[in-house]
Amino acid sequence: MEVVLIDGTYELFRHYYAMPSAKDVDGNEVAAVRGVVHSVLGLITSGARHVGVATDHVIESFRNELWPGYKTGAGIEPDLYAQFPLLEEALAAAGVMVWPMTEFEADDALASAAAIAARDSRVERVVIATPDKDLAQSVRGSRVIQLNRRTKTMFDETGVRAKFGVGPESIPDYLALVGDASDGYPGLPGWGPRSAAGVLSRFGHLEGIPESALDNVCTVAANEPSTLRHHVIDYVVHMRHHLRQILG
Cα(12)–Cα(100) distance, rounded to whole angstroms? Predict the structure, then answer.
């Protein structure tokens, strides 16, 4: 049995900007919904039998209370935002399992579903269909993998290490250090992918860096010895905590 978990929010955005405009009888924009539904039904037609789609029914989540700069619905085109409920309704009507998220995010639903499915001995593989870097932390060996449907690129655990320089378990620490503009958190000044991967490949997690190594680590990786020492508890550990997905 293969379980396919789809990031409906990403798919709706992707189809909104890729599809020509189409309106229903009331003049409402529906092209993105049509595109996503057609794509999901095509997946089912090609053989997928266990499919779930998670959406951000509300863009804001509990993380906005933890980090004031976290992503919001501001700036989203109104005729795109209005298609979220329609997409959820259309997929449910087609018999697809849909998780419309409000307090939590679509990412949380995907990570939770992946963890639950992976515990089921009947499941041979779980495919998390999203390019979102956050979900790389949910990859497990070659049994739970990540798929970018647009580029048709798959990442198992070896692929995650090749891409980021760290294993899935260190992805929250990695993103806390380097930041992620799409989610609205900046990372630490002076830290990039190479320096973050170098430190985390040795220590695993930020909490794993011994006090005696902090100054040396910061000097080598960030060239600012005070940067990590000053922020590691106030920012990085805090950010790492809320970047972790809800794993069921």
Answer: 13
